[in-house]
Amino acid sequence: VPAGRLPPLSGRVYGRRWLVLLLFSLLGFAQGLVWNTWGPIQNSARLAFGFSGWDIALLVFWGPIGFAPCFFFMWLMDKKGLRVTVLLTSSLMVLGAGLRCVPVSDLEIRKKLIHGGQLLNGLAGPTVMNAAPFLSTTWFSPDERATATAIASLLNYLGSAAAFLVGPLVVPPPNGTAQLGAPSNTQHIKDRIEAVLYAEFGMVSLIFSAALAYFPSRPPFPPSVAAASQRLSYRRSFCRLLSNFRFLMVALAYAIPLGVFSGWSGVLDLILTPIHVSQVDAGWIGFWSIVGGCVVGIAMARFADFIRGMLKFILLLLLSGATLASTWFTLTCLTSVTHLPLTTATLYTSCILLGIFLNSSVPIFFELFVETVYPVPEGISCGVVTFLSNVFMGVLLFFLTFYHTEFSWFNWCLPGSCLLSLLLILCFRESYDRLYLDVVVSV
Question: What is the documented function of this protein (predicted)?
Answer without folding.
Answer: Mediates H(+)-dependent pyridoxine transport.
